[in-house]
Sequence to fold (140 residues):
Amino acid sequence: MHRFLAVLALAVTLCGCQGEQECTLIGTRVGVQVDVAAPLASRVIAAKLEVCQAGRCTEPKLELFPSDQGGKYGFGDVGGLRKERATVRLRLTDAAEKEVLDRTIDVTPKGRFPNGPQCGEGGPNARMEVDGEGRMRERP
Fold:
């Protein structure tokens, strides 16, 4: 019996099998993440987001927070967002409610794996960024 356990332990060590990874109950937010880089972010006080997909448009709440990179970030929750092309319009305003940016971009939300692929896919979201000069692009 001891010999069997020793052989089994050696086999587990050689194959790298350490048992199954534990999957937590962490979820994935469904919607659109927005990052605004400095110096543009310093002028921005408020943001509005419109997300259109499959003929349906929604305007999720988007609150911006300071980031440790000198910019700002926020997330708009979009229930029912699917992993297919969506059009996102982002409007940024300053303290005088004057428009700083009004741009539209097409994005494709992706399923995310907060615990790794072995734990299953979370809901889809899209990530976009605005550079310091106002150019927008989708992030992976």
User: Anything to note?
Assistant: Residues 1-19 have pLDDT under 50 and may be disordered. The two ends are 52 Å apart (CA to CA). Strands lie at 31-36, 46-53, 56-58, 65-66, 72-77, 86-93, 99-107, 110-111, 124-130, 136-139. The first helix runs from residue 2 to 15.
